UniProtKB/TrEMBL annotation:
Pfam families: E1-E2_ATPase, Hydrolase. This is HAD-IC family P-type ATPase. Its main location: membrane. It is found in: Cell membrane. Residues 114-211 form the P-type ATPase A domain. SUPFAM superfamilies: Calcium ATPase, transduction domain A, Calcium ATPase, transmembrane domain M, HAD-like. Residues 1-27 are annotated as: Disordered. Keywords: Membrane, Translocase, Transmembrane, Transmembrane helix. The chain crosses the membrane at residues 59-77, 230-248, 268-294, 635-654, 660-679, 691-716, 722-740, 752-771, 783-804. Gene3D superfamilies: Calcium-transporting ATPase, cytoplasmic domain N (3.40.1110.10), Calcium-transporting ATPase, cytoplasmic transduction domain A (2.70.150.10), Calcium-transporting ATPase, transmembrane domain (1.20.1110.10), HAD superfamily/HAD-like (3.40.50.1000). It is a multi-pass membrane protein.
Amino acid sequence: MFEAGESTGRHVGSGAPAGRPAVDGLSSDEVLSRTRAGRINSIPGATSRSVWDIVRANVLTLFNAIVAGCFVLLLVLDQWRDALFGFSALGNSLIGIIQEYRAKQSLDRLAILHASQVRVVRDGSPKLIPAEALVPDDIVLLSAGEQVAADVRLLDGGYVEADESFLTGESAPVPKLPGAALLSGSLIMAGSGRAAVVRVGPETFAYKLTAEARRFALVTSEIRSGLDRVLRVITWLLLPTAVLVTHAQVQNAGGWAAAFSSGQWIPAAVGLVASIMSMIPLGLVLLTSMAFAVGGVRLAGHMVLVQEIAAVEVLARVDVLCLDKTGTLSSGATAFDAVHDAGVPAAEGWRQALEWFGAKEEASTTAKSIGDAFPAAEVLPEASSVPFTSALKWSSVTFPPGSPAAGSWVLGAPDFVLADSSAGAHARRSAAALASTGLRTLVLAHMPGALPGSATSGALPAELVPVVLLTFREDIRKEAPGTLAYFRQQGVGLKIISGDDPRTVAVLARAVGLGTGKAYDARNLPTDPLLLEEAVENHHVFGSVSPSQKRDMVQALKRRGHTVAMTGDGVNDVLALKEADLGIAMDTASPATKAVARLILLDGRFDRLPAVVAEGRRAISNIERVSMVFLSKTVYITVISLTFALLLWPFPFLPRQMSVLDGLTIGLPAFFLALQPGAQRYEPGFLKRSLAFSVPAGLCGALCVLAVSMYAHFAAPGSAEATQSAAVITLALVASWILVTASRPLNWTKTLILAGMYGGLALLFTVPPAKEFFRLDWPPADLLAASVTVAVAGSLVIEAIRYFQRRLAGRPED
């Protein structure tokens, strides 16, 4: 296995067998022999967890262990009627497993269909194969925008610049000369070449990193971390609460000796189970996981591949969308337009030079359009060349003396190629005029002899003379204006960040309805972080942006407190996509770009983005609503348990009564509410907002039950069944109003859900079998009146709590 230090350019052994020309590649028989021996590039590439991981996460939990223990205890005590919560917990686990498994299947199918492919030479000709089909000694063709799929050695004649940040954390591209090692996971940022596969699959240096990085994981986010903190607090409260409740139940039965001699310890144990089980928010984690899993499946239905399920939460928080021009706002297809005079007599050989630029195997879409316009019957052999990079903004080729196109030819952006050329003044003016019409413009310049070695690290020589100007057309996506208008209406800031000429970018921005003035020339961006933040905050259209500047601009927006999404399709977008909170790649994106993106628009439709954002907002807003209901229940049950234990009163509910109340006022309604539409942008502070409502609402519910129980105990003493029924009525009305309050704004679907809840509660007290099973009956008239009065008063208090909570959170009223 390679050592990490070899990624900087150390020569390695191995590669193609001795005596074999590297250009031939392996034969079909050699590939078959290696494949049968299991020497293939088999690396876990699924976006989802294994079935065992899904089952373990939904079944083997601390709370499920407590539920199972309580369930078994009640069965042993022959109290099966009060063990209904066990079936509820089992149902929760099954639903969670089924939903996540369905999400897994959907994401895995998409991942397989859109798995990365590599170009290799086999049987003497180039072929496109899946990355996992690579075998040792394969000859791989590398070019800018690709991700290295195995450990390889760069062969003679190649030069690339590799981003090894997946392995080292350092994002600066590393030059790679012939003989240098390239490790799997590296991104080719510039250059091209052929490389021999040295190690594949589990033998590669990055195997463990790649396997781990591509695993599906439940969301590690503010939502998940907030809920985890709450669950930890509940876990710590369970033991002391259980001790106090046990003591109260036993003392109420006459003490330990009397309880065991009379058999009253059994009802005491039932009361203990009721209090403990009611404190556990069994369905909360399920519904949270389900909302994210369903979000991933729904996005798959929109032809959006979620490479990291945490992206669903980020979708809801995005408030700035950065857009690359080419491939995002434009179709990405570049069509050659025309050749224009550069103002000086054209040097001989310019057509052959253009044929060379258009004939390269790794040619970009722009170069390919040149190749279509200037097809080469025979490509001239070059003496040397410099590959295009987004930092240079040009590429070059030098032909030897005696060649029909002798000398050096440079093709690139006019402002970069002719920056210090006095002979280029006319060409620069002509190029500016062409760019101002929205045409993409390049210049082909020439000089005798070879370029100086300093050209790639500084300005090009002034001897360069412009030969011709080339213009290209890009079609604006027809859906772009409407999509951008949607984001503006939703309060999402828009930034066009393009490497093209600012004048060309400005024309496109006006065409899609974003801005009417000039584009900011990124070459004039300040380097001071604070000044950069101001410039990026106050301007919306940028041109001539380098890849590192794109990254710096995203970082500046994040420092300003924004949640940033970035769309792109080129290798020049990789740094910014990695830095953004949410990277979105188009279907035409390079493999390197797709590798770092969290979402991929598989059909390349830009108008998918509104549905993508809406799906994220739906998931998060519903999780917040559901968590408010579940946490309110945890608060009021905890307070009731502790208060009644301190008063040495028995717990006021049977487990079966709490099970049916949970199911009707929380479980079933929350299941459907978690899937309802929602469009409000998520803002940080999920846990704070949830607790700001849940804690006072839960206290209110507990005080209402305590008030009714005290009235029954002191003012209207009666049977234990009547007191329990009164407590159930009170809690049912208060808990149902908590659900109503959290469900706003209401629609027909939510109204039907709530109506079903109230109908189910009414059936508990009117259907004889239900009344008998749950030991419920109408309490005496005065106790019933007290229950309803207290519940109505409690509901009004909850209404006030919700009002002030939303005011403090700065959110609009329901």
